[in-house]
Design goal:
The chain has 13 helices and 17 strands. The chain is α/β, with parallel strands linked by helices and 378 residues long. Strand 14 and strand 15 form a beta hairpin. About 2% of the residues have low confidence.
């Protein structure tokens, strides 16, 4: 294959694509808006599934490195009522079907697997345009352009590449999460640490829920979900940590103190994360020389599949390009025809992190039933 691949975005999906292409001897360049790989935190833990994310890592020839990142015991899962009663408590079975790793460490092994200079940091895309005959120009905010005949948008929810293919834009799903962190949890926050247990914990109710997991270094990372319009959150001053914490905690009045401690005892200022999604079943007609992967293609409400799907997208696209070295369009067609139904199916599953929080069915008992059905279907 003589065409260089231009990838926008150095997230997990874009880096997996670059790595799989490298394994097959295909050159690629990744342009990333961030100024360096360490300029910001890369988020919390990810469970990497044996039916998608791990398949991507196998294609990238990085399974050995991946196994070295696994946090033992973190596949444990528990479901609590708001009063703190543990209704479901599943230990880590050790099978490795959904092992947990830190997102930042996973990204690091992907970066380390690429030739020096593959990722061009500090290149924020300000626009893209078609030049005709399947070629595209990418313009960067800091100045400069690059022209390419194979452009891949791996640039997330607000992709600058997507408009070349689709007029769809993400819409607010009616829910936001507030992130908190509790450090040195076993010694400084023992009640909350006991409630969360050794892996993940969710306490769901209609319109309100608390999801938390135990990360490395004795850290609890919580996502406090509230189904409210954006105006509701706009009325809260998140620049004042104490005010924002008190306002969010008030929505959980009457909940067990070991659960509300995940809000009130946070060791950083609470961080608001509005949630957006592209239209269900988002797809586009084939356009020569350009495609999308990950959230740029199929942003959905959080359900534990996003990072896994992005990585699988990257791996499958890389394999398709390697399988059709003299026919890029055949490769892109094969990739998209498999990706569209795969992402639509994944978005339809309601997992622990997205169980229809605005629904009357978002209760501990309903969530346990959903988990049971899902496990029986495996």
């Amino acid at each position: 294959m003589t065409t260089d691949v231009t990838i926008i975005g150095a997230g997990l999906g874009g880096l997996t694509l670059a790595r799989v292409l490298h394994v097959h001897g295909i050159p690629a360049t990744v342009y990333e808006a961030e100024s360096s790989p360490t300029v910001r935190s890369q988020g919390g833990m990810l469970d990497i599934h044996d039916y998608n994310g791990q398949l991507a890592l196998e294609a990238a020839d990085l399974m050995e490195e991946f196994r070295g990142l696994i946090l033992e015991g973190r596949q444990a899962m528990r479901i609590l009522d708001p009063d703190g009663t543990v209704l479901f408590d599943k230990a880590d079975d050790g099978t490795g079907g959904r092992p947990e790793v830190q997102r930042g460490e996973l990204r690091e092994i992907l970066l380390d697997s690429l030739p020096a200079g593959t990722v061009r940091w500090g290149h924020k895309v300000s626009g893209t345009r078609a030049l005709g005959e399947g070629r595209y120009e990418v313009t960067f905010a800091g100045g400069g352009t690059v022209a390419t005949s194979l452009l891949v948008g791996a640039d997330g929810a607000w992709s600058r590449v997507r408009p070349l293919l689709s007029t769809a834009t993400p819409e607010y799903i009616g829910k936001s999460v507030v992130e908190t962190y509790l450090f040195d949890a076993d010694t400084r926050h023992p009640a909350a640490a006991k409630a969360v247990g050794g892996g993940s914990m969710i306490a769901p109710t209609p319109r309100r829920e608390i999801f938390a997991h135990r990360e490395s270094g004795d850290t609890l990372h919580a996502y406090v979900g509230l189904s409210e319009p954006q105006d509701w959150f706009a009325a809260i001053d998140f620049t004042d940590a104490a005010v924002a914490t008190a306002r969010i905690a008030a929505e959980f009045d009457g909940w067990a103190p070991e659960l509300t401690a995940l809000i009130t005892d946070g060791d950083i200022a609470p961080v608001l994360r509005p949630l957006y999604a592209l239209p269900a079943g988002h797809r586009w007609d084939r356009v020569p020389g350009v495609t999308l992967l990950g959230d740029a293609a199929h942003l959905a409400a959080p359900n534990g599949e996003g990072a896994n799907l992005a990585m699988l997208d990257g791996a499958e696209l890389g394999k398709a390009l390697a399988a059709h070295p003299d026919d890029v369009e055949a490769a892109l067609t094969a990739y998209e025809q498999a990706m569209f139904p795969r992402s639509a199916e994944a978005a339809a599953f309601e997992g622990a992190e997205a169980h229809g929080a605005d629904s009357d069915n978002n209760t501990a008992h309903d969530l346990i039933a959903a988990f049971t059905r899902h496990e029986q279907a495996q």
